[in-house]
Write a structure and sequence with these properties.
Number of strands: 7
CATH topology: Rossmann fold
Shape: globular
CATH class: Alpha Beta
Order of helices and strands: EEHHEHEHEHHHHHEHEH
Structural class: alpha/beta
Strand content: 5-15%
Radius of gyration: 17 Å
Oligomer: single chain
CATH architecture: 3-Layer(aba) Sandwich
CATH superfamily: Alpha/Beta hydrolase fold, catalytic domain
């Protein structure tokens, strides 16, 4: 198993149960959660952890990134969960949402939160929709996938990741953290998946969408929620990277409310 970067923030006193494990999306790493969410949840009494999947952040495997498939990322989440004090709530963003869906199907966890998640049936519909909604962003995302982060227009990535309210200077802070994504993983999930891997129906799952998400718009979020037999929650005025937006705290509060009401009560 690879040596994985896990960023942990713990509360000063006895933590609430269960712990939280955050899973990043494509082209990213655990840093995306540590910017705001991990310190906030720790200050509120939660044991909060974020894993960098193999080949991402400071985890091993950057030199072999394109060898890894989606199943490898699922194994990384299971490995990270094994090192925690109890089975956590898994919280996944974008591609990490699909990783969480498949991890929930492999093992019984306390619950899952899918934030602006890739749908269980794959990226074909959302990708073709992006080509229609914003041809330039579609073209730039293809450049990012093929040639890496140095080949793209930062403004296109800002439009893909954030709402119009996000200041350019604030968005620019995160550009240096972008990295390549495994082409094998993008092939694994990039088409239409006719028989998607789904969590057990009795596993509590929250599906959260961003109202201004260019990558996974409202229809995709609703379809994901329907597949998981739940109702979606939409965050107004938010772009794809909800955890970095100006009003990120409202997203964190909504996640905490759901975990406290749905999962913590069940664990207790």
């Amino acid at each position: 198993m690879p040596n994985l970067e896990i960023i942990s923030r713990r509360p000063a006193g006895t933590p609430k149960a269960p712990p939280l494990l955050f899973v990043h999306g494509a082209f990213s790493g655990a840093w995306i959660w540590d910017a705001n969410f991990l310190p906030w949840f720790a200050a509120r009494g939660w044991e909060a952890h974020a894993v960098s999947l193999r080949g991402h952040g400071n985890s091993e495997g950057r030199d072999r990134l394109h060898e890894f498939g989606i199943a490898d990322y699922v194994e990384d989440v299971l490995q990270a969960a094994d090192g925690l004090s109890a089975q956590p709530v898994l919280i996944g963003h974008s591609m990490g949402g699909m990783v969480v869906q498949r991890a929930l199907a492999k093992r019984r966890f306390a619950g899952g939160v899918l934030m602006a998640s890739a749908p269980p049936y794959g990226l074909w519909s959302s990708t073709m929709g992006l080509a229609w909604r914003s041809p330039y962003v579609f073209q730039q995302m293809a450049m990012l996938t093929t040639f890496g982060e140095k080949a793209i227009d930062p403004d296109a990535i800002r439009r893909a990741m954030f709402s119009d309210k996000m200041p350019r200077a604030e968005a620019a802070k995160y550009e240096a953290y972008l990295q390549e994504e495994s082409r094998r993983v993008l092939l694994d999930i990039g088409g239409w998946i006719p028989f998607p891997v789904l969590p057990p129906r009795d596993t509590p799952v929250m599906v959260m969408g961003a109202e201004e998400d260019l990558l996974f718009p409202r229809a995709e979020v609703i379809a994901t929620a329907m597949a998981l037999c739940t109702q979606p929650v939409f965050m107004p005025g938010m772009g794809h990277a909800m955890m970095l937006e100006q009003d990120w705290q409202s997203v964190a509060e909504r996640v905490e409310q759901w975990v406290s009401a749905t999962v913590t009560a069940e664990v207790g």
